[in-house]
């Protein structure tokens, strides 16, 4: 999961609930000092939330972009049904993204991180009319790597039998035990408390359904390549979910702009936010 480098919103940002045709979604929105050059909608990944983008808000606003990071249904501060019951299927989540984009006025620069990239891709394939560009960040062409599939299936299975706290404790025990898992490292107590609260607030059905999506997603790169929308593929120099060569090949097939963020791994948005924001604004300026 992404670890935000800090949690306090910058002065240019506020938290509120975005009203859409598909319900309300918790968001963080940052506004530039002058007229916006455009609007960006940021969609988080598996086990993530809008806070994963907190370090991008100020630099993107400074670059002239109205920037809105969202909690998807069942994520953190956006309500969703406890059980899956079809509510968290890829098509449903993609329709949520389209509703969010339209509520923001349309013509948005859409960015999806990791799982959020798969959902954003589905949203664009369903109907690209609400988007000005698409950025896939730390997201590959299909299902995640085999070691991560095994790890994610373990999580999905555990969610079917254990409560959220018990699963959290087991995840912490497993963190860092394999080279393919997200780097653990020391966690600031305030951040650790937030990560636990976020986990406990996330609907188990959302995690089970989206975890299954990550292990079964087909390759839809050719479909996306046919959509006449500016595309950007961003990653770190290493990625434990999708090997970087997979991401490179996907970008080439998409004829997409390609940015590799030096010093970053699976979460450039949190690990190297200044360089990531610069790359995003540069792409959006040309889109």
From TrEMBL:
Residues 41-279 form the AB hydrolase-1 domain. SUPFAM superfamilies: alpha/beta-Hydrolases. GO terms for molecular function: hydrolase activity. One of its GO terms (cellular component) is membrane. Keywords: Hydrolase. InterPro entries: AB_hydrolase_1 (IPR000073), AB_hydrolase_fold (IPR029058), AB_hydrolase_sf (IPR050266). This is Hydrolase. It comes from Streptomyces eurocidicus.
């Amino acid at each position: 999961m992404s670890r935000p480098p800090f949690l306090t919103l910058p002065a240019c940002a506020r938290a509120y609930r975005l009203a859409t045709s598909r319900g309300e979604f918790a968001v963080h929105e940052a506004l530039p000092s002058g007229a916006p050059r455009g609007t960006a909608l940021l969609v988080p990944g598996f086990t993530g939330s809008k806070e994963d983008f907190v370090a991008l808000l100020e630099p993107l606003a400074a670059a002239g972009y109205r920037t809105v990071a969202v909690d998807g249904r069942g994520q953190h501060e956006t309500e969703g049904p406890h059980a899956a019951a079809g509510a968290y299927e890829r098509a449903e989540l993609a329709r949520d993204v389209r509703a969010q984009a339209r509520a923001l006025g349309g013509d948005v620069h859409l960015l999806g991180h990791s799982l959020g990239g798969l959902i954003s891709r589905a949203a664009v394939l369903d109907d690209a009319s609400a988007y000005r560009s698409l950025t896939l960040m730390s997201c590959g062409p299909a299902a995640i790597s085999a070691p991560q599939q095994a790890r994610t299936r373990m999580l999905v299975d555990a969610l079917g039998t254990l409560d959220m706290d018990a699963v959290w404790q087991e995840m912490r025990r497993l963190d860092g035990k394999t080279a393919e898992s997200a780097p653990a490292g020391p966690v600031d107590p305030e951040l650790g408390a937030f990560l636990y609260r976020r986990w406990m607030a996330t609907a188990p059905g959302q995690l089970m359904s989206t975890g299954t999506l990550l292990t079964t997603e087909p390759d839809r790169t050719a479909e996306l390549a046919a959509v006449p929308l500016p595309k950007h593929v961003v990653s770190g120099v290493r990625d434990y979910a999708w090997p970087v060569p997979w991401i490179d090949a996907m970008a080439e097939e998409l004829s997409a702009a390609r940015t590799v963020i030096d010093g970053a791994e699976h979460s450039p948005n949190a690990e190297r936010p200044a360089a990531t924001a610069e790359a995003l604004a540069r792409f959006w300026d040309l889109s």
